[in-house]
Amino acid sequence: MKISMGCDHGAYTLKEHLKDYLTKQGHEIVDCGTHSTQSCDYPVYGEQAARLVASGACERGIVLCTTGIGISITANKVEGIRCALCRDVLSAQLTRQHNDANMMALAGGFTGPLEAERMADAFLSTPFEGGRHQRRVDLITQVEQD
User: Fold this and answer.
1) HSE on the CB side for 121, CA within 13 Å?
2) How many domains are contained in the chain?
3) Which end of the chain is more exposed for a tag (fewer CB within 10 A), N or C?
4) Of 17, 27, 35, 98, which residue is the catalytic one?
5) Boundaries of domain holding 52
6) pTM: predicted TM-score of the whole model, two decimal places
């Protein structure tokens, strides 16, 4: 799967770990930055990663900042993005099953590397259930377009 990734300085180390892990699993990673621990602004990288998903250039996206909050807000400003801040494996799984989320945000300051791996595995392998959930995703899309 082709996955966009973006982070700020507070989550750089976790992004690099996760990028290496996912690449070894055979995924193609488009790294939107940042590329160091030097202080930077997360909206720049969250937007870049989200635009790649929204355009179809990448199938999914994973964005990270210290809390995961700011970068998820940024990603969700891009039309067509449903980015969920996930704190555990179950939330990563359910956001795919119920919300058809196309991006996941992680908190680099609160999520360990092994938990991030498990969350990414769940997010990338869980299909959308559709059914009653499709109706709700359609309502979310309608809000975005109004």
Assistant:
1) 10
2) 1
3) C
4) 98
5) 2-145
6) 0.97
Which stretch of DSSP H or E encloses residue 57? Answer: none
- CA-to-CA dists, residue 9 to 41, 69, 106, angstroms: 8, 14, 13
Q: State the Cα–Cα distance between residues 75 and 144, nearest whole angstrom.
A: 13
Residues 10-43 have pLDDT tens digits of 999 999 999 999 999 999 999 999 999 999 999 9
At position 124, the amino acid (one-letter code) is: L
What's the rounded Cα separation, in Å, for the pair 29 and 1? Answer: 8
Q: Report the CATH number that the domain containing residue 10 is assigned in CATH.
A: 3.40.1400.10
Looking at 65, 83, 86, 133, which residue is catalytic?
Answer: 65
Taking only the tens place, the pLDDT of each residue in 96-108 is: 999 999 999 999 9
The secondary structure of 65-101 as a DSSP string is ESSSHHHHHHHHTSTT--EEE--SHHHHHHHHHHH--
Distance CA 75, CA 63 (A): 8
Any catalytic annotation for residue 65? yes
